[in-house]
């Protein structure tokens, strides 16, 4: 699924990566615990999270994730935005809560890492 | 064109895991990277009688009609034949051109371009700048194939250079046993810098040409070890030792030490305070993650003294193979 489609489905605001909206995300992962993200996320996933701090960017950098969508209307600070820019990470924000945001993407066919690894 | 079929196959993703380099590239690369920039154009006022000579001299079958850089239409050899057949008096190309023209944008991905070639069956598309609306180029299927081949060649060379470096680091050093040591200081509770060690080590290993799967495992385990030092201790040091056989990472801190190692190793067990959890850590998965990513893990801790965590990731000869490849 293209990032641009994710933006439409979740009605996202875009903070970084406007040029890369044609990139494809294969899988979705909804998670607030960064250790769980490190343990379970597959490269090429989009991370949906309610957590908003610089560690989110560090974590996705290490886990090779290039797209993050903050849920519940949380918007990244300038510091977070700049960190994401430096690392070519796409930052989005949706007003939807975590459950609905994940549900919408799952409903249109985006899979999770667990299903793929089975 | 046979290659166009191959391109089509390349762009129809069969499974998420099966992505070839070409498939990656058609998503990554933009029309502007492969299109021809020098476009032959004509002014709307050009007489039809002069069109034939232009098409013949330039060996093209059609030409964009442009006024002040804005595309007004396309006039082709077909329009010229129809004009001759109808026996009309001479007129300007603007009266005979096709005004409805399918175009691509400069920042469209190549996968979109391939879809359009496939859907409409045209030989070429004028390319319009999404910002200025002006005509900036023209693209054919041949341009796409040439662009992809060129990019793959460049990537191939880059990969070769990587391997060259990786192999020579160890080959050029004359010794019975060679170990590269990278040391990093980790500061207590400094969340602005937390993650810099693993990020730095990751970049270093990448420059050495170590395989991405190995790097990912080292980076994740190191990040967890680094966060543990930042969150729980008074600061410490992370040392990575790289040999052709393995990467050995040691994370040492000055305390306070782990009271119950067995408990600490249980997934989900954590002594983290709320402020740590608020940062997304302290879920009790750190040591479990490190164990999962490494081939060996050793943890020694003394209350009041400190903790030494060591994990090893075998290189399974990937490194040596890369070196042998060049001999």
What does the model show?
The complex is a heterodimer of chains A (118) and B (327). Chain A is α/β, with parallel strands linked by helices. Chain A has one domain (3-111): HprK N-terminal domain-like (Udp-n-acetylmuramoylalanyl-d-glutamate--2,6- Diaminopimelate Ligase, Chain: A, domain 1, 3-Layer(aba) Sandwich), CATH 3.40.1390. Helix content of chain A is 42%, strand content 19%. Chain A has six helices and six strands. Chain A has helices at 3-10, 34-40, 54-63, 78-86, 98-107, 113-117; strands at 13-16, 27-30, 45-49, 67-70, 90-93, 111-112. Chain A has a six-stranded mixed sheet with strand order 1-5-4-3-2-6. In chain A, α3 (54-63) links the parallel β3 and β4 (67-70). The two termini of chain A are 21 Å apart. Chain B is built from 14 helices and ten strands. Chain B has helices at residues 2-11, 21-28, 31-34, 51-58, 77-85, 93-96, 110-120, 141-172, 196-207, 212-232, 261-265, 274-278, 286-293, 318-325; strands spanning 62-67, 70-76, 104-105, 124-128, 135-140, 180-186, 236-242, 246-253, 296-302, 306-314. The A-B interface holds A 19, 22-24, 26-27, 32-39, 43-44, 49, 51, 53-56, 58-59, 61-64, 111, 116 and B 16-17, 27-28, 107-109, 111-112, 191-192, 194-195, 198-199, 202, 216, 219-220, 223-224, 279-281, 283-286, 288-289, 292.
